[in-house]
Specification:
The protein folds into 2 domains: 451 residues, Neuraminidase (6 Propeller); 273 residues, 3-Layer(aba) Sandwich (Collagenase (Catalytic Domain)). Helix 6 packs across helix 10. It has 11 helices and 39 strands. The N terminus and C terminus are likely disordered. With 765 residues, the protein is of the alpha+beta class. Strands 1, 2, 3, 4, 5, 6 and 7 form a 7-stranded mixed sheet that branches. Strands 8, 9, 10, 11, 12 and 39 form a 6-stranded antiparallel sheet that branches. Strands 29, 30, 31, 32 and 33 form a 5-stranded antiparallel sheet that branches. Bound molecules: zinc ion. Zinc ion binds next to helix 9. This is Repeat uncharacterized protein DUF346. One of its GO terms (molecular function) is metallopeptidase activity. Belongs to the peptidase M43B family. Pfam families: DUF8189, Peptidase_M43. It comes from Kribbella jejuensis.
Length: 765
């Protein structure tokens, strides 16, 4: 219970302005009166007045010839979601399990010739190039000097370097023509390993755990080919060559492989059959452009399909890409001696490679008591034994990315997937902006700047208006906020922070029967979705210079729209149809597709999150009040997966990193509950939930401003805003405690007067 759990019920009320504070507290009138004019929304217009002025609306949104048939067709109600074997009353605190196929990958054939221990060909290539190319020797020497300089200046790049990848599948047997799912699984592994979000770092002993470092590098399959055309980032080439080796023949069309894409702009990964027990090889930076990249044995690539134990966790590619970014083997490649170095001060001097999964400690080269750091990706252990890079390794890689590979990365202002819109958003590290409605239905704002709450812990900035929907805020760049609400005329209004001041409210027309849902897929781009009076979906967008729409998207929708953007010029919209099944419509960059029927009989609006390009995870509450999950893996929909619980609100879902999901719900006791997907399993279990205390009166709002960071906001029974946070290792102020943030909040999500209850509130909740 937010209020009493902390005993903070009476703390506040003396600071600044609170939403909906009674007139006597307008000692703070300097901020403007709730009824101040100059705001389009306070006019309380005669119905229809505003609407006709905007040149838009009523007509636009009511007409359209929308076929009800589009969305209600062909679905037997009752299918899919009401099953699952949930014992009513089991509640959300349990850890029991139920059916559910789970997300673990399948296995396939093509496992012949799987090496039994790791062997990497990077030094073969290195020695060959040293002996044949004076330019290579000079480039290696220059890079080492630059790296030492970089390290001595203690430089690090800021933000995340995103690396475009092209995977060249070169196959001789059909089994070697690996699936898209196997390729996707490898990209996922790279994104976990290079952000240190892989859960198996748990195997690292405490004496080494402080060395684990986030490389701040992410990878994505290229979306543009060298000619600027759309691509899926994969090439497929049939070859007559049965087996390749370190001679680089796979890297040229003329020798049975395929030429690289420009190696300064793409990380080229060739996947093929390698002989001689070779798992893969790389070319260090400084080598010939025509052969730059890494080569991986298909059965050591990704985590499904032909991937075979003990090299079926994708770590061969993590290792080889480490070489590509100038990392050396951790023992220094001097055979079994103690004189070689990997040029990293924080990796213990080690004699030779470690194989299999060694037992800690393994002492060599007088490196006791802790011994070799065989948990490192740059050793030779099995996939399940290598789980980390160190701080100095990360610095070496970053030096490479900032110098010889500086044309390769794309630095995003934000992260891999666009920041979702909502009542609480973050436009940068350690930054939070929360928007609420006061009891006067004006909008109020408070923010965390990294060190303190503004305008004060319990205070709020008054933003005016009389709002008929919870603030929906998008941020497409640092220090930029775009807030959307409905006015009393049910038209859409827009207010924005341009980095220096607030602007608006701007009138955007329409007669909306749902709260607006916003998405942004790039700089200066906003996409708003609402339901019209005909319950069809409508779309309005800001293209950087003007507003467009409303565009009619059809349907008869029984829930507010859910919209996500997982990449540039990509939108995915979800609604419930009249059968309470989920329907999906998507913009692919050139046209709208759908509605696609996704089944289910839902008792809540769908909630969807994208943790990376071409990934969608959808959550709904079923008619049994349990949570259900369905996901798009890049090539197909999976699920429904039954996740237990007796839920009294729609789920709130966020993702702070690749293959990471966090779901928050209220239980029948109005407490907050949490579950999470860590990339391999659901915690605390498939159908179990973490109890987080509180007595909450509205859906939680959750935002993440960085890897392994969550900020949760709820409303208490006293209508104050409450906050709790995950800092990467623990919940603050405690697992069941909350920070009181003042205010008397009308609601996060306001229902729309006179609208069908099902529209504003979701169905059946
Ligand atoms: Zn190697």
């Amino acid at each position: 219970m937010p209020r009493k759990a902390n005993g903070r019920a009476d703390k506040h009320r003396d600071e600044d302005r609170m939403p909906g504070e009674a007139p006597e507290s307008n000692a703070h009138a300097a901020n403007g009166q709730p009824t101040a004019n100059g705001m389009p929304m306070t006019a309380a217009p005669a119905a229809g007045t505003d609407m006709s002025s905007g040149g838009s609306p009523a007509a636009d949104m009511a007409g359209g010839g929308s076929p009800a048939a589009n969305m209600s067709g062909g679905t037997p109600s009752g299918l899919g979601m009401s099953g699952g074997g949930s014992p009513a009353g089991a509640g959300m605190s349990g850890g029991g399990t139920a059916g559910g196929a789970g997300m673990s990958g399948a296995t396939g054939d093509g496992r012949a010739e799987t090496p039994s221990r790791r062997q990497c060909g990077v030094m073969d290539v290195h020695r060959r190039l040293l002996s044949t190319s004076p330019e290579y020797a000079a480039a290696r020497s220059a890079l080492e000097t630059a790296t030492i300089d970089y390290v001595s200046r203690q430089e690090r790049f800021t933000g995340i370097a995103r690396i475009p990848v092209v995977v060249h599948v070169v196959w001789n047997t059909s089994a070697q023509n690996i699936s898209q799912a196997q390729i996707d699984s490898q990209i996922d592994v790279l994104n976990r390993d290079y952000r240190a979000t892989n859960p198996d770092t748990s195997i690292v002993p405490g004496v080494f755990s402080g060395l684990i470092a986030d490389a701040q590098v992410e990878f994505f399959l290229a979306t543009q080919d060298p000619n600027g055309n759309p691509t899926n980032g994969v090439t497929r080439t049939q070859t007559s060559v049965a087996t390749f080796t370190t001679d680089d023949k796979v890297k040229a069309t003329a020798t049975g492989g395929i030429d690289p894409w420009p190696t300064n702009k793409y990380l080229n990964i060739w996947v093929c059959q390698l002989g001689g027990g070779l798992l893969g090889y790389a070319q260090f930076p400084g080598g010939p452009a025509a052969t730059d990249g890494v080569v991986i044995l298909h059965s050591g690539f990704g985590t499904n399909g032909t991937a075979a134990a003990p090299f079926d966790l994708g770590r061969t590619t993590t290792h080889e890409v480490g070489h590509f970014f100038n990392l050396l083997h951790i023992w220094g490649d001097d055979g079994s001696g103690c004189s070689g170095s990997d040029e990293c001060a924080d990796t213990p001097n080690a004699a030779g490679p470690n194989f299999g999964v060694p037992t800690f400690p393994h002492v060599t080269c007088s490196n006791g008591p802790n011994g070799d750091l065989f948990y490192d990706y740059m050793d030779y252990t099995d996939d399940r034994g290598m789980v980390m890079f160190t701080n100095d390794q990360v610095t070496r890689m970053q030096a490479t990315i900032d110098t010889v590979r500086k044309d390769l990365p794309v630095f995003d202002t934000a992260r891999a997937t666009p920041e979702p819109a909502g009542s609480v958003v973050s436009w940068g590290a350690n930054r939070l902006d929360a928007f609420v409605l006061g009891t006067d239905l004006a909008m109020y704002h408070k923010w965390w700047d990294g060190s303190a709450w503004g305008p004060s812990v319990a205070g709020y900035e008054y933003q005016g208006g009389i709002c008929m929907s919870a603030p929906e805020v998008a941020s497409w760049a640092p220090n930029r906020l775009d807030a959307f609400v409905l006015g009393t005329d049910r038209a859409l209004y827009h207010k924005w922070w341009d980095g220096a001041s607030w602007n608006g409210y701007e009138y955007l027309g329409g007669i909306c029967m749902s709260p607006p849902r916003l998405a942004t897929w790039g700089p200066d781009r906003l996409d708003a979705f609402v339901l019209g009076t005909d319950r069809a979906l409508y779309h309005k967008w800001w293209d950087g210079s003007s507003w467009n729409g409303y565009e009619y998207l059809g349907g008869i929708c029984m829930s507010p729209p859910e919209v996500v953007a997982w990449g540039p010029d990509r939108l995915d919209a979800f609604v419930l149809g009249t059968d309470n099944a989920v329907y999906h419509k998507w913009w692919d960059g050139s046209s709208w597709n759908g509605y696609e029927y996704l089944g289910g009989v839902c008792a809540s609006p769908p909630r969807v999150v994208a943790w990376g390009p071409n990934r969608l995870d959808m959550f709904v509450i079923g008619t049994d009040s349990a949570l259900y999950h369905k996901w798009w893996d890049g090539s197909a929909w999976n699920g429904w997966e039954y996740m237990g619980g007796i839920c009294t609100t729609a789920p709130t879902v966020v993702s702070w990193g690749s293959d990471r999901l966090d779901v928050f719900l209220l239980g029948t006791d109005s407490a907050l509950y949490h579950k999470w997907w860590d990339g391999s399993a659901w915690g605390p279990s498939l159908t179990g939930y973490e109890y987080m205390g509180g007595i909450c009166t509205d859906e939680p709002r959750v935002v993440s401003w960085d890897t392994n960071r969550l900020d949760v906001f709820v409303t208490g029974t006293d209508k104050q805003l409450y906050h709790k946070w995950w800092d990467g290792s623990a919940w603050g102020p405690s697992v069941t405690g909350y920070e009181a943030l003042g205010g008397v909040i009308s609601d996060f999500k306001v229902t729309i007067p006179e609208s069908p209850a099902a529209i504003g509130q979701g169905v059946g909740i």
